[in-house]
Design a protein that fits this description.
13 helices; mainly alpha; 70% helix; MetI-like fold
């Protein structure tokens, strides 16, 4: 026979995709995503500045110098000084450590606890109605109002802020994980594991939770950004990070009485909050586009 059936040639792009694992393929797509690249660079610069604060600042964040109070931004004081003569540049750098730490802690704790709550609601159907009604009740309150209430009860402290914001954002993570787990529990490989005699705990941690990580990771990035904004709000209201700890929120709060004459006290920490939240949201957009197969991946 002269006619020979041949399979279509595999292109170089397809061959590369087949040769790479799912993790490497996702990382390659992420690095090619415009929003992820921009957000990653912005967030990396903020984190780098926070890590290098002892070396690139002018001293300690609470060092006062009454003689130079209300100094405008200059070469000597890049971001100016406040009403106590404290260097705003130094306070913003050290405030980044507190604000980013609180945001990251809230994102991780909300994701872990929300994932456990969501997967239990999806897997143990008898508990589903009870658990989700509790989550719905928490979602009925705006997150910031719930955080204000919890923080007011616990008192102004960094750990209180983390607990308050975590309790406010657990329901969001729980609903995302529950929605994914309800689909995963109906898959054939889960039914095969049940038939083979695998325990519920083994199936949950080996099959269900790993397949819920993609939407949960995207939700974590947005919770991270929300937590930074919420911490700034709580600190601005006086029930967040307490002085003398420098956080972006309480720096803005301390400068509100001098907005007309010393606008720089509020401007620079406000810009830091905006840049960080924007960077994290851009990273979240990139993760969503790459990890959700229904969306087109930007080149």
């Amino acid at each position: 026979m002269t006619d020979i059936l041949q399979a279509p040639p595999v292109t170089a792009t397809a061959a590369d995709a087949q040769s790479q694992g799912p993790f490497r393929l996702a990382m390659r797509r992420l690095t090619a995503h415009r929003s992820f690249r921009i957000g990653g660079v912005m967030l990396a610069l903020v984190i780098l500045a926070a890590c290098l604060a002892p070396w690139i600042s002018t001293g300690t964040p609470n060092a006062t110098a009454v003689r130079v109070r209300f100094e405008a931004p200059s070469l000597g004081f890049l971001f100016g000084t406040d009403n106590f003569g404290r260097d705003i540049w130094t306070r913003v750098l050290y405030g980044a450590r507190v604000s980013l730490w609180i945001g990251l802690s809230v994102a991780i704790m909300s994701a872990v606890l929300g994932a456990l709550v969501g997967v239990c609601a999806a897997w143990f159907r008898r508990l589903d109605s009870l658990i989700m009604r509790i989550m719905d009740a928490l979602l009925a309150f705006p997150a910031i109002l719930l955080a204000i209430g919890v923080s007011a009860v616990l008192g102004p402290h960094i750990s209180s802020v983390i607990i308050a914001l975590t309790s406010a954002y657990i329901p969001r993570c729980a609903r995302v994980v529950r929605a994914s787990a309800l689909v995963i529990r109906e898959q054939n490989y889960v039914e095969a594991a049940l038939i083979s005699g695998a325990s519920d705990v083994r199936i949950i941690f080996k099959h269900v939770l790993p397949n819920c990580l993609a939407p949960l990771l995207v939700t974590m990035t947005f919770v991270f950004a929300y937590a930074i904004l919420a911490e700034a709000t709580l600190s601005f209201l006086g029930i967040g990070t307490p002085p003398p700890h420098a956080s972006w929120g309480n720096i803005v709060s301390q400068g509100r009485d001098y907005l007309v004459d010393a606008w720089w006290i509020m401007l620079f920490p406000g810009l830091a909050i905006s840049i960080s939240a924007l960077a994290i949201n851009l990273i979240g957009d990139g993760l969503r586009d790459v990890l959700d197969p229904r969306l087109k991946i930007e080149g």
